[in-house]
Specification:
Strand 2 and strand 3 form a beta hairpin. It is globular, with a radius of gyration of 25 Å. It has one domain. It has 5 helices and 9 strands; from the N terminus they run H-E-H-H-H-E-E-E-E-E-E-E-E-H. The protein is α+β, with helices and mostly antiparallel strands. The strands form 3 sheets. Strands 7-4-5-8-9 form a 5-stranded mixed sheet.
Length: 288
């Protein structure tokens, strides 16, 4: 008796059908991937914003405890000084880092090197990245520089940071500002009462993308301007030692004295931007 042919036997895909399926999948991936990337950047941007909010809260808690904001840089020479971020460590749940430092050493680089070269090495604040001081959108965040050479001081292993203080409207071209008209500069002792322009109209800190060469931006220990604070003399732009900027499209986040964080466009009026950086210029600042 002859066998019946199975009518429900499935036939294989033809080459044309396979190519159509692959094309559909490729189109779907092309549509979905940008949305996924945008969602990830939105999350990183929100985290960066939150870091500055935490720094703002720490600045005010420091002021409550000491009746002044911390110095932008602790060195009277402008080099080898601790930056304002190190003084905020107890208020950023990092007291152990603060307690590990002997502030009697006049040069922070000497202190760091002594700890890193001790046998066995002693804990120090600069040989590990602190996520709260890094913008997650920055591709150079978390990269380590072994400093000491033709272009840098001998400060041991350092991790540059993303958040610098605002010294005012005039740059010292990466040396040191001792008479800034902003809030954070070398040996500054700024109080809330000194911010005559109002805390809601005065920039305290901002983000600067970490230089690819890692030479500037040692926010805990290092130089002064371009390391721990910046002015607004130059417009917001990416990849510049002398200006604030970020890897977020269009501008950078800034912390205002009232604790709020605003995203300022790189195309904003430069006079307004400079006016926001001064503490007592009595400039009329409109919308920004």
């Amino acid at each position: 008796m002859p066998r019946k042919r199975l009518t429900n036997q499935r036939e294989a895909f033809t080459l044309i059908e396979l190519l159509v399926v692959i094309a559909i999948i490729a189109i779907l991936v092309a549509l979905i991937l940008p949305a996924v990337q945008q969602a990830r950047e939105a999350a990183r941007r929100a985290q960066c914003r939150n870091h500055l909010k935490q720094i703002g809260l720490a600045l005010h808690n420091y002021h409550d405890a000491h009746r002044t904001f911390p110095m932008g840089n602790s060195s009277p020479l402008g080099v080898g000084g601790w930056g304002f971020s190190i003084f905020l460590m107890p208020f950023l749940e990092q007291r152990s880092i603060y307690d590990s430092i002997d502030f009697r050493t006049p040069n922070c680089c000497q202190e760091v090197l002594a700890r890193q070269t001790a046998s066995p090495p002693q804990p120090d604040p600069t040989s590990q990245p602190l996520q709260m001081l890094l913008c997650p959108s920055d591709p150079n965040a978390g990269r380590m520089l072994v400093s000491g050479g033709a272009t840098s001081q001998a400060c041991g292993r350092l991790y540059p940071g993303s958040y610098l203080g605002v010294s005012g409207s005039k740059s010292s071209l990466c040396t040191a500002t001792f008479k800034g008209n902003g809030v954070l500069y070398s040996i500054s002792r700024t109080r809330v009462a000194d911010v005559l322009d109002g805390t809601s109209s005065t920039l305290f800190a901002g983000e600067r993308d970490i230089p690819r060469d890692l030479v500037y931006g040692w926010v805990l220990c290092g130089g002064a301007e371009c390391e721990q604070y910046l002015s607004t003399q130059f417009k917001i732009v990416r990849s510049s030692h002398l200006s604030f900027g970020s890897w977020h499209d269009g501008g950078a986040h800034f912390l205002l004295g009232d604790g709020s964080v605003r995203f300022l466009s790189g195309h904003m009026d430069h006079a307004t931007y400079k006016a926001l950086s001064t503490r007592d210029g009595r400039e009329a600042v409109g919308g920004f």
